[in-house]
């Protein structure tokens, strides 16, 4: 069924009995052309673009839990293209352009809202860095405006501008940044892939990767063995475990990142704000909750729940930046397993095993990357060559040291920044 205003009207007048399931629940077939391990945003988007752009539809996405149960449904929903380094710059620009046409493309309301994002700075040095980043964004063809303190105050009058340690000097404004409803992105890509013939197999954990004479031949799963000509590992926080099934040791550490949401409030924050000194970011959801987060929990873990010291740290950052938040009550918090790479940038590459592909290392930035990542990973799987927007996401940069993209300037210990 195609969603449209006419369909909503018709269903509204006929008791809403015509809405079907968004996707089928098929049994796994014995063999596929392509298997994608992981039904998160990146796996689903890869399947969608494989079918849509390359006509490859004999594809299965194998998900050990349920669609949307991973980080794609746990993030703070920020979408932006304000990266400064070659490699990241063109990739995130590519992804944002896909976001801008995504709802029409998927025929699905992912609630993409370009409400703008302001990255605050609190020193002269940070202003210089913001100006450099803004110039890089403009050179890439994206938008950036350097706001002074009064420019920020006009948009966000409730911040603590004269905080003794971190007075607000200004901000880098990226008008095309914003948010999207995270679950809807997973559902939209799932529906789009399913409609093109992709099998989405939930409750199907991959437990082994079959390799014969240097070539991948299929996977072992909790629902039996499935053969495949090509297999893509797109398992985000579990990438290290999945790649180990193919004998690979990845330069990835899995860490927990928490997020928080307050009770619903009247509209008070109509843009996204990031506070670099406290590593804190916040927006207001369409339901009214203030959605915010901060740093990793800083120890490797596969438990999708967070610790209290980090919750306290995030609350402190919130109070430092915008004391009015102290009046809001936190409704709930949750955690997700983040695949942290040493330079804070992703990996989208072939591997030393024929037919086996790797997509991981998304760190804090994987939600905004979903359409771009799916698009370029599908291109890589279909053609064997990296897409022009993702030529630098090679795995071997961590072995050679050539081509590292240390976007956040945190060195090779991104996870410890
Ligand atoms: C709290 C939090 C806030 C964040 N905020 C933002 C943000 O504001 N903006 C932004 O851009 N990014 C953000 N991120 C990062 C972003 O959410 C992730 O980088 C991105 O979602 C990861 O890709 P994914 O969607 O494919 O991952 P996931 O949804 O985690 O998908 C991976 C899937 O693989 C499955 N899987 C794992 N192992 C197996 C197996 N053996 N067999 C089968 N399936 C398997 C998992 O069950 C999972 O569903 C945030 C992350 C968190 C946790």
Automatic annotation (TrEMBL):
One Pfam family cited in the UniProt record for this chain: DAO
Gene Ontology cellular component annotations, sorted alphabetically: cytoplasm
GO BP terms, alphabetized: tetrahydrofolate metabolic process
Keyword Oxidoreductase attached: yes
Coiled coil: none
Enzyme class: oxidoreductase
Cofactor dependence: FMN; FAD
The EC number(s) this enzyme carries: 1.5.3.24
Name under which the protein is recorded: Sarcosine oxidase subunit beta
């Amino acid at each position: 069924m195609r969603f449209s205003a006419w369909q909503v009207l018709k269903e509204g007048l006929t008791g809403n009995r015509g809405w079907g399931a968004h996707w089928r629940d098929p049994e796994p077939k014995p063999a596929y052309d392509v298997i994608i391990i992981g039904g998160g945003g990146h796996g689903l988007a890869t399947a969608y673009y494989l079918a849509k752009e390359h006509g490859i539809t004999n594809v299965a996405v194998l998900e050990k839990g349920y669609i949307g149960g991973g980080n794609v449904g746990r993030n703070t929903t920020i979408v932006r293209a304000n990266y400064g380094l070659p490699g990241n710059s063109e990739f995130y620009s590519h992804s944002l352009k896909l976001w801008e046409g995504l709802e029409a493309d998927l025929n699905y309301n992912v609630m993409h809202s370009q409400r703008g994002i302001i990255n605050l700075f609190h020193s002269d040095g940070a202003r210089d860095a913001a100006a450099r980043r803004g110039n890089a964004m403009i050179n890439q063809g994206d938008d950036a405006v350097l706001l002074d303190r009064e420019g920020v105050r006009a948009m966000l009058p409730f911040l603590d501008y004269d905080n003794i340690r971190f007075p607000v000097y200004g901000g880098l404004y990226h008008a095309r940044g914003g948010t999207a409803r995270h679950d809807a992105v997973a559902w939209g890509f799932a529906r789009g892939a399913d409609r093109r013939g992709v099998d989405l197999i939930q409750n199907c954990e991959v437990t082994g990767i079959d390799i014969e004479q240097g070539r991948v031949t299929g996977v072992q799963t909790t629902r039996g063995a499935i053969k495949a000509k090509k297999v893509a590992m797109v398992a985000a926080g579990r990438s290290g475990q999945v790649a180990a099934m193919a004998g690979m040791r990845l330069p990835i550490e899995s860490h927990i990142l928490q997020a928080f949401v307050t009770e619903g409030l009247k509209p008070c924050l109509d843009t996204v704000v990031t506070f670099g000194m406290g590593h804190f970011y916040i927006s207001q959801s369409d339901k009214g909750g203030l959605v915010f987060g901060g740093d990793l929990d800083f120890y490797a873990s596969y438990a999708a729940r967070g610790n209290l010291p980090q919750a306290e740290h995030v609350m402190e950052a919130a109070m430092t930046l915008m004391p009015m938040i102290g009046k809001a009550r936190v409704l709930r918090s949750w955690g997700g397993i983040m695949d942290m790479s040493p330079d804070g940038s992703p990996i989208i590459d072939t591997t030393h095993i024929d037919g086996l592909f790797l997509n991981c290392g998304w760190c804090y930035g994987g939600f905004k990357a979903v359409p771009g990542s799916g698009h370029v990973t599908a291109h890589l799987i279909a053609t064997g060559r990296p897409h022009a927007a993702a030529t630098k996401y090679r795995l071997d940069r961590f072995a050679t040291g050539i081509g590292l993209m240390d976007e956040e300037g945190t060195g090779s210990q991104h996870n410890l920044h």
